[in-house]
Amino acid sequence: MMTFDEKLRNSINNFDNITKPDYTRNELNLYVDFVELIATKYVEDGITLADIQDRFFGEKDYSNAEQRDKDENFLQSIFLLVVERVLLYDDHYPFVYDTTTLKVKSDLTAKNKLYISLLFSSKLNLFKDFKTELTTEFEIISYSVLREFLPNNSIVKEFGKNTAYTGNAIGKIRQLAGDLNLDINEYELSCVSERNQQERGLDIVGWIPFDDGCKNKIIFLGQCACGKEYESKQHDTRRFEQYLNFYKTKPQHTMFIPYSLLNVREGKFYHSDLIENDFLIFERKRIIELHNQDLDSSESFTIVDNFLTYPRSAI
Question: Parallel, antiparallel, or unpaired for β 183-184 and 244-245?
Fold first, then answer.
């Protein structure tokens, strides 16, 4: 079993294996994430546009001015989005940018550390040795966000890794149906294997109860997705519409992702085409705004603190 220090060292070294990410150029928000991550590695000096230009293009010999202009405009677009984030996140943004250098703040608040934690969670290919810790805690964070978002009389429960529901998937779904006071589609539930111990794609469930006992209520079915292919997980909570007979109103499908997706100029999400209709999305900005639980002793904050203070001379 790897020690914490070994995991940390591997995570830092993983950055050296990726000179340039393989995103398409229209995925600017992901490129900004990458630039921010590089800034967390070079925590003392930060990162400049020139550094990123060297990293992405090196000594590229341009055969025509048009291609050079395209590359320069691409880099400018990345750093314009950095400026957008400075304004969007305000005090919650963990970096300072002086038009030349993006650098981690010297004195980080809890919200700043949460931002970096979500940034790490969105890049599990670099933090693969901490995957279990980051994904497990992201589910806990998402639970507290939904708890904060819903009215005080609402009920929110974890259904994934940290759930209090017991038994196999069928047993957990039956217990959930009892809590929700909903009838079960027995045929659809019988199609689930008795050997299936997983949650069937539901991580968090919340609902606003009435005292009248009527089955008609607003129910939130939440999925936590850290991976880049989060759009493929949007179908996971939909299968619960087969297992449970929701009465007169469909559940509100909800997804929690650690990515920064808000396009403030359009009032929409970046890559909106990847998000299905009838979904409520909690992305990085919304999560940070709503989360109010103490994370000082959490594993994710421990990873952040140690990553930022790890002596680079020891790498």
Answer: antiparallel
pLDDT at 22: 82
Residue 55 has what pLDDT? 87
> Residue 113: which of 96, 92, 130, 97 has the closest Cα?
92
Identify which of 27-31, 149-153, 235-239 has the greatest average pLDDT. Answer: 149-153
Is the Cβ–Cβ distance between 205 and 173 less than 8 Å?
no
Residue 190, classed as helix, strand or coil, is helix
d(CA 222, CA 228): 17
Count other Cβ atoms within 10 Å, centred on residue 60. 12
- The domain locations on the chain are 4-129+298-306+308-312, 131-290
Counting other chains too, the contacts that 149-158 makes at CB distance below 8 Å and 24 or more residues apart are 149/282, 149/290, 150/206, 150/208, 150/220, 151/208, 153/208, 153/209, 154/206, 154/207, 154/208, 154/209, 155/179, 155/206, 155/207, 155/209, 156/204, 156/205, 156/206, 157/204, 157/205, 157/206, 158/203, 158/204
